[in-house]
Amino acid sequence: MLPLRLKIEHLWALVVLSGVFVFVNTHPIRPNDFWFHLAYGRILAQTGQIPTLDVFSFTVEGQPYLPVYNYWLAQWLLYHLFRLGGAEWSILVSSLLVTFTYALILWLGLRQTGNWRLAAAGALFAAAAGITNWNIRPQLLVYPLAALCMLGIESFRAGVKRLVWAGSLFVVMVLWVNSHATFFIPVALAAFWLAEAAFHALRRQKIALLLPPLTLLTVLLAGTLVNPRGFGVYAYVLNMPRIPSVQNYIYEWQPTSLHTLEGRLLFALLAALLLTWLAARPRLTLSQGLSLLFFAALGLRYGRAVIWFGLTQAPLFVVMLQRLSLRMSSPPRTTRAEVPVFNAAFAIILLFLALASVPWLRKYWPLSPEKRDIYASETPVEAVTFLEKQGLPRRVFSDIGFSSYLMWACGPECQVFADPRFDLYPTEIWSDYLQISAAQGDWEAKLHKYDVQALLLLPKTQKGLIEAAQHASDWRQVYQDGVAVAFVRDE
Questions:
Q1: What pTM did the predictor assign?
Q2: pLDDT at position 17, please?
Q3: Distances from the Cα of 491 to the Cαs of 105, 353, 454, in angstroms?
Q4: What is the β-pairing status of strands 415-416 and 475-480?
């Protein structure tokens, strides 16, 4: 039962967190990353081994795919969650994890300032940066781990239960390093603190100042080494941004620009930070400055890093807001007495809306058809079901989002030309994929070269190939709906 003494300042926090929960709950599952991670999780669960050789494609079959070491635990967890509860529970648990993440950010801001409004503003700042990165994939599972690390690092710096936090952060890093390749983020935060401590140690001639941050950094680094590859996991982090196919074909790995939503959000948040700093003029610590520069540069360089800018800089934003509020404080005014019953009623309405947004109930909302559906409109569920009944050919050329679903629905018995594992395929494969998709050049000869037996095409991105295949003698259209068009080779 909600307390009748609920204040308006508490509602600020509830509005932000319920908004995040509803937003994630009312978004369908996007196919690109979700399904192929489930496929890997299934193999891991069935064999008890991490699959490192490709079995899902016919263009690079048998080639090593070592990045799976960076995701294996998340893939295993996602598979079991889906197996036990289906897509609906996958969405609900994801919503809870994302909401818990920003609840921790809010709690961190509340500890810093003691002000619910400022803490809610910090959580909103972080959430705004992450709104484009809440799709269900391994990265989502480490968001709460990131917030826990931030809370733990701040507590460790303050000297609060250092032994407890050291053990907890070690466990968190073990989970993180086996779930996603962004495990370097808390390591970077600890390194910035160490740099600040080294600066003060040199000024004051007190080498003991290095001990706490050095201890923390050692604990975090030790946690990252508890994985099947040891130091090898760092090779993936360092090499991934330099892979040509990743840089050329994945917009998330390209520089942030105003042409994308995450780019506009990043520049807006940077502007908010700058304006707040100009108005409040706080003196940043060395670690705060290094963190701001590092994560701002990371967000500007890679679109998918914008969410990390929001999460890591939200505490700084809250501190600057507090400084600004103190500078602009005026003599206290007589305020109207609050009506606790009205506050409680408003909170109940928010909680009711949040509950009504769960996947089983959202179909009754006046939402667009795509938001009411569990799966995104580009998921070829019915088309693949039809092809399976007809005897799905082994080699299928498809849209890469379709490929991800094919890997889950019928892989590795049927194999795909290319899929969202961009780092697995050389640029030559991607060049052929784009030429065939657009029906350019000798597209038919390329399909013959790869012995492609079926086409599963997305009209939005492969319209040219659909039209060409309809007029080609070698291909026969066997299926079409609002999502996909399928052809088989006419022998």
A1: 0.93
A2: 96
A3: 60, 56, 12
A4: unpaired
